[in-house]
Design brief:
The structure is a single chain. Helices cover 2% and strands 39% of the residues. The chain is built from 1 helix and 25 strands. It has one helix spanning 124-131, and strands at 2-8, 11-17, 24-26, 31-32, 48-51, 56-59, 64-66, 69-72, 82-85, 88-90, 93-100, 111-113, 139-148, 153-158, 176-179, 184-190, 197-202, 215-219, 231-234, 240-242, 249-251, 267-271, 278-282, 297-304, 307-314. β20 (240-242) and β21 (249-251) form a beta hairpin.
């Protein structure tokens, strides 16, 4: 409550006025927007929402959530805070954190990442210099599949030396390779990526020799983990994820759907099989072409003194040329 005094000539007028101020309300457990797992109650239009690491918040269908600023936290060694908007969300701003371990040598510290905010109405310089905050010993690249010269089949395009005519460096569908000299916390401010779907590839390039080419670095722009049901693929391989510590790639396996997951804002590589291809992701899982009955395969195991090799042979009706799993 505030006391207001107004002078008008020789007369003073006073009155009290009640102002309502917003609060910071913190999630205490994973759950739904209208549950009781808030430190200061369900948020309203003037309140700031804080979702800690290792938690998922769902705005269910039919719920119109309101807030001032949404904070999605991250921390080294933790899982990113997740937000899934099935209903609607009215808000002024979002602050999304991303934490990276600094590299210790040339063989670790490389991360495949994406842009957590919608780049519309944000300058490319702001995204690169402020949000990605790359110093002299830090790196930020995207992969250009359709580049060829005498010694390169594709190339990494460096943010610090973008070739002329390359267009916008930062795009929602594009994945990036980032590395930082020291532990780094980034903060991205803007609008949450919340479209019903994103087309990541549509007749993407397949350069020659095509047995070695066709690799594209894509992204999960959503603030939640993608599962197998969020993917639709035509002549596109399963995603491959990079381990920042070992620099080894792991290809997701459709015969193990529970492990077919891509965390928020993660980049991943896929390979196209021919020039007619498409890769899209949807906010609501609608059943992926990649979903198969796990019983429809046999596993072949080769054992020798040097170790064990395994491969899976899949049987799918209605297959087409290229990648069906």
């Amino acid at each position: 409550t505030y006391l207001m005094v107004v002078e008008n000539g020789d007369t003073n007028y006073s009155n009290t006025q009640l102002f309502k101020t917003g609060k910071n309300t913190l999630r205490t457990l994973s759950g739904n927007w209208n549950d009781t797992n808030w430190t200061k109650g369900v948020p309203d239009t003037i309140d700031n929402v804080i979702i800690p690491t290792n938690q998922e918040l769902i705005i269910p269908n039919g719920v119109n959530a309101k807030a001032n600023t949404i904070y999605l936290r991250d921390g080294l060694g933790d899982n990113k805070a997740e937000l899934k908007i099935q209903g609607s969300l009215e808000y002024n701003n979002a602050v999304i954190e991303a934490d990276f371990n600094g590299y210790t040598n040339n063989l670790d510290g490389w991360n495949l990442f994406s842009l957590p905010i919608n780049p519309l109405n944000i300058s490319q310089d702001t995204i690169g210099q402020v949000y990605f905050n790359t110093g002299n010993n830090d790196d930020l690249y995207y992969w250009q599949e359709d580049y060829t010269d005498t010694s390169n089949l594709g190339r990494w395009v460096n943010y610090k030396s973008i070739p002329g005519g390359s267009g916008d460096f930062f795009k929602t569908q594009r994945g990036y390779l980032v590395s930082y000299n020291q532990n780094k916390k980034l903060e991205f401010e803007g609008r949450i990526n919340d479209s019903a779907s994103y087309t990541l590839l549509d007749n993407a390039s397949l350069s020659l020799p095509n047995s070695e080419r066709g690799w594209h670095l894509c992204a999960n722009p959503y603030p939640f983990t993608l599962s197998i049901d969020n993917f639709n693929r035509t002549n596109v391989s399963n995603p491959s994820l990079l381990d920042p510590q070992t620099l080894k790639y792991t290809t997701l396996d459709v015969t193990v759907p529970t492990n077919y997951k891509i965390p928020p804002y993660s980049g991943f590589f896929v390979q196209v099989a021919n020039q007619t291809n498409n890769l899209s992701i949807t906010k609501e899982g609608n059943g992926s072409k990649a979903t198969i009955n796990p019983s429809n395969f046999i596993e072949v195991k080769l054992i020798s003194d040097l170790g064990v090799d395994k491969t899976k042979v899949l049987f799918i009706q209605g297959t087409s040329y290229g990648f069906d799993v």
